[in-house]
Amino acid sequence: MNFQSFNPPRRILMGPGPSDISPEVLAALSRPVVGHLDPLFVSMMDEVKALLQYAFQTKNEFTIALSAPGSAGMEACFVNLVEAGDKVIVCRNGVFGDRMIQNVIRSGGEAIIVDSPWGRAVEVDKVEQALIANPDAKCLAFVHAETSTGAVSDAKVLCALAQQHDCLSIVDAVTSLGGIELKVDDWGIDAIYSGSQKCLSCVPGLSPLSFSEKAVNVIKNRKSTVQSWFLDQSLVMSYWSGAGKRSYHHTAPVNSLYGLHESLVQLQNEGIENRIARHKEQHEMLAKGLAKLGIEFIVPEEERLPQLNAIYIPEGVDDAKVRNYLLNKYNLEIGAGLGDLAGKAWRIGLMGYAARSENVALCLAALEDALNQ
Amino acid sequence: MNFQSFNPPRRILMGPGPSDISPEVLAALSRPVVGHLDPLFVSMMDEVKALLQYAFQTKNEFTIALSAPGSAGMEACFVNLVEAGDKVIVCRNGVFGDRMIQNVIRSGGEAIIVDSPWGRAVEVDKVEQALIANPDAKCLAFVHAETSTGAVSDAKVLCALAQQHDCLSIVDAVTSLGGIELKVDDWGIDAIYSGSQKCLSCVPGLSPLSFSEKAVNVIKNRKSTVQSWFLDQSLVMSYWSGAGKRSYHHTAPVNSLYGLHESLVQLQNEGIENRIARHKEQHEMLAKGLAKLGIEFIVPEEERLPQLNAIYIPEGVDDAKVRNYLLNKYNLEIGAGLGDLAGKAWRIGLMGYAARSENVALCLAALEDALNQ
């Protein structure tokens, strides 16, 4: 056994995440490690909290970055808010809605499933019917931006429905945060999780998380102990409770948090509205070019995510062959289809730092070249 | 709100972890991000697996780095191996044995607690009595190197006892891996977890994990579904199953894994035996200096961890004042006491890259200065 240092090439990441990362965020990762209880680090965590509040557009006191990927963020929401026997209405229109169902079941809850077609938004009428048919439901859970299909759902309307029916809303914002409009307080979202590696353009491994006061009270008044020690947010709350009052839970991923801090400073400097506009602009440039190549979108225009473009693989074209060609010739990564769309779709991400004209132009040129081969 | 980039000072980390990190590992963190399904990244994960097998001294096929901190690694062991009603004998001689008990209970198991004094090794006789009294126990769990007290327990003897009594052994090696002798296969350890930020000298946030074939079979033959989706190792197994056969579970923390890979290459290049000898040597230098200062160890010599030196705070000395003095004047971090030892002890870590003569000399000089103030 004699392994050498790993020196990855510079890829252009236009898949479903991780996304391209700015040089500044990459540089932040290799700053000197400090102790996770160092007063300077604790202050930085306070800043991360304030910056995440800005990103989520919330004043929620409980706004943190979970020390694990987005799928752990999803589990943190369900495992803390759902107790044995609780009914949860889950909207499924892709892979991640399905994963929510697994989480409800493993948390001991009962999942009431509302299916909408893959590649389409969650159907609001069906959700309303389910809420009426299940007046005892505790939560309504849905994915804001389905990473597996590229469809956006109407989070504002769905959360308003949840409130009307006295349900907590649980929202997957893994791909939406920083990419499209998302207003946690205005829309009355109760529990929301995201990932660091999508439109925030940080490295993968952290999950931004925010709970409303109502959600926090539900956790504080649970009858049973949360089944997970690591994800028990009543413990994590004290860990993120701010300078001076911080109690030990686990060792924070110090350097990844440097990266997240830097990526959030960049978001603050750009301004959320500008970032959202940039995603839309780059998406329009991409869509125009794809139309010229005769490539069709899976999602109808009004339900499309600008930051994740799911397109049909043209007839007779070899999926893997094209993706490998792009990767090997151009160092360009685009995403394969997932779940029901495996082998049928590509997913082109324009997330965060990746949403740039040079990337769009390269992607279109490279794709044209690949299809001509 | 107008936050700036965070520029931490260069600290010398001689607490209980995170430990000092080599410039090479820090540099590895900021290499370009690649996709988590990129063939080059999948090959790197295969190398991480082989390097972890070397670190653990095992041929276990199931040897991975969990995408979350050591406390999630602990939970992964219990939540996968323990089902409702299972009896688990847990040895408690510090904070982390106590955390194991919480994990057993939250996994639905019954914890049989064997208490040994804080600051001492787990008492083998008591464990044997518990094994005899509980012939139906499924697992024996203990902490190899108690980070809260600095005591090492006889993992070899305890695992042999577990085997004699047909129990699976679950071993916490968070602070031991890479610091003292640890032979997973020779000692017959069934499930073991560690942390990236201790004697491996990588950034915090990852948990090396290894399960014996016997443990893997127990997981495969569970009657119930694992309560955690994120920590369900039957799903994670396919994720780490090696090039070509890899199936999607979550997005790996790409850059943290670059760091772990680099730190394991450094372990390979130094050689485990040499690293263990280095820890011992530096510990002896530190112990000699502490004796001159009249400072006493908490743990008797034969049960002392070289990499984590728990010492009594001299009478009349202000705990926090001294630690702040060291941090502010010398950029030197030493650890506070934890649990029963809070306010009574300091913990001086000599872990991985931190176990160097220059650190020991600085620590002794700075401590002498602080005590004279």
From TrEMBL, chains A, B:
GO terms for molecular function: transaminase activity. SUPFAM superfamilies: PLP-dependent transferases (SSF53383). Gene3D superfamilies: Aspartate Aminotransferase, domain 1, Type I PLP-dependent aspartate aminotransferase-like (Major domain). This is Alanine--glyoxylate aminotransferase family protein. Its cofactor is pyridoxal 5'-phosphate. Belongs to the class-V pyridoxal-phosphate-dependent aminotransferase family. Residues 35-337 form the Aminotransferase class V domain. Keywords: Aminotransferase, Pyridoxal phosphate, Transferase. The lineage of its organism: Bacteria, Pseudomonadati, Pseudomonadota, Gammaproteobacteria, Alteromonadales. It comes from the Bacteria.
